[in-house]
Structure formats: C-alpha cells, structure tokens
Amino acid sequence: MKTSIVTGGASGIGLELSKLLIKDNYKVYIVDNNSKNLNRLKKNLDSNSYKEINIDMSSVSSPKKIYNMLKDKNIEILINNAGFGDFGKFYQTDWEKGEKMINLHVLNTTHLTKLFLKDMVKKNSGKILNISSVAAFQPGPLMSIYYATKAYILHFTEAIANEVKDKNISISVLCPGQTKTDFQKNVSSKKNKIKFNSSCPVKVAKYGYEGLKTNNTISIPGYFNKFIVFLNRLLPRYFVTKIVRYIQEKNRN
Ligand SMILES: NC(=O)c1ccc[n+]([C@@H]2O[C@H](COP(=O)([O-])OP(=O)(O)OC[C@H]3O[C@@H](n4cnc5c(N)ncnc54)[C@H](OP(=O)(O)O)[C@@H]3O)[C@@H](O)[C@H]2O)c1
What we know:
- This protein has a single domain, classed as Rossmann fold, CATH 3.40.50.
- The chain is 50% helix and 15% strand.
- It contains nine helices and seven strands, in the order βαβαβαβαβαβααβαα.
- The chain is globular.
- It starts with a strand and ends with a helix.
- Bound molecules: NADP nicotinamide-adenine-dinucleotide phosphate (NAP).
C-alpha cells in the first residue's frame, strides 16, 4: 500500500484531502492535535485506511518525532495542511498564539518538508502539497501574522518546487479563499459576516489534489480568488493593504 501524511487531517480541507488519498489507495497518517476531530474519524473513514497521530505540530520537536515514527514507511505524499488564524491588532493579540502560528506555519512546515524531501530526492519519487491561502498575496492588517506566514509558505514552496523540477517529484502549494470549515470560527469570537465567496472544503481539496497530481506549482481554487490575486498585481500595495483592513473590519465587527 502507498503511504501519505496529512497534518491537520482530522477536519476541514485536510480531512477531504485524506479521503481523496484513501480513494487513491493510499494509507494516510493523519496528524492532528484535536482529539475530538480525531475521534470522529472512525465514523468517516475505514479504520484500515488511516492511522491517527495525536500531536501538536506547533511544538518545535514535532517534525523530528513524526519523521522518526514514519521514516521507514516509504512516504510518497506529504501534505502540510495544519493551520489556524487569529484576529486583532498585532500589538493586542496573544503572543503565545502568534508564536505557535509561526512555529506551525513557518518553522515546522519547513522542517517536516526538509526531512521527507531529502528521502524523496534519494529515491527520486514523491509529492509535497503545502497549504497556504489567498492571504499570502498581500499584507493582512488585523491578521498580520497569519497573512505573513502564509506568504512564507507560498514563496518557500515555489522556490523548492523550482529546485526539484528536474526530478520525479511534485511540489505544489494550494491557496484557498474563504472555505466553510471550523477554521473561520476559530479565528475569533467575532463571527465572520462576509461569506459570499465561501467555498466548500470538498471542492477546495479536490482542486489542490489535482494540482499536486499534475505538478501545478500554485493552485488557486475559484475564479473570484484568481481574479483577486491578479488584481493585487495591478494595484499599489498601500491601497491593497487598505482594502484588506477595510474588509477585515467589516467582516468581524
Ligand atoms: N477555511 C478557510 O477559510 C481557509 C482559507 C485559506 C486557507 N486555509 C488553510 O487551510 C488549512 C486547513 O484549514 P481548515 O480550513 O481545514 O481548518 P480546520 O477545519 O480547523 O482544520 C484544521 C485542522 O488542523 C488542526 N490543527 C491546528 N493546529 C494544529 C497543530 N498545531 N497541530 C496539529 N493539528 C493542528 C485543527 O485542530 P484545532 O481544531 O484544534 O485547531 C484541525 O483539526 C489551514 O492551513 C488554513 O490556514 C483555510
């Protein structure tokens, strides 16, 4: 059986990606820190098709632990999907949460990728999908660390995808727009109000998985999201930043 890893695979986009992998006969190692979500997997997935690993991927020791646990499993696909957001002015938000976000999105996505990519290069085979966001394409007042860390994931993934172009390895980054998962309600106690461009995780996961299989470096699901990203390139950055601030304020106030 082929093997894969999905971080944050017990909910939302990660769960849908796990289902797609299982459909393609992969065994999925689902790495998540949410015990409730992990317990619910039994209802959704065949118990032979996955193995759960309950671990906090924002802890700096986690990538090495996961690698040591799974290095002999001949991992063919790694999906770095675990992520969360936080709402508020940078000088007012909780530092511990911000630090965890940087560790999860930046440090540990990079470390886990390095550990498994080295082995993929040795055997000249493998695929890595990193989950970023449309947030990656501009600064994000009121969600500053989230937007900045997603920009890191985008740029980092594009760069390493270029480095392995001559190998039998696909590296791809998925940049969803707003998607109907638990993510939005975990961002803030203030509910998000702007939902007109909200997609479903099934569609988003399918788009990203196809992008990975066809070695498409950047996958942006949805015409509106593609348009927004395109528009960003035409408008002055200060203006784009102002628009994001306006939208964030309208969305959560
Ligand atoms: N939904 C959106 O609108 C949207 C838009 C663009 C990009 N994204 C990105 O898509 C990815 C998946 O998010 P989603 O929308 O599917 O959210 P989700 O439904 O909340 O699923 C994320 C899963 O990852 C887990 N997780 C969070 N932090 C973790 C950690 N430190 N270690 C291990 N597992 C952790 C979550 O557990 P907890 O419930 O405990 O946090 C949850 O089970 C994220 O990277 C997110 O930034 C989402």
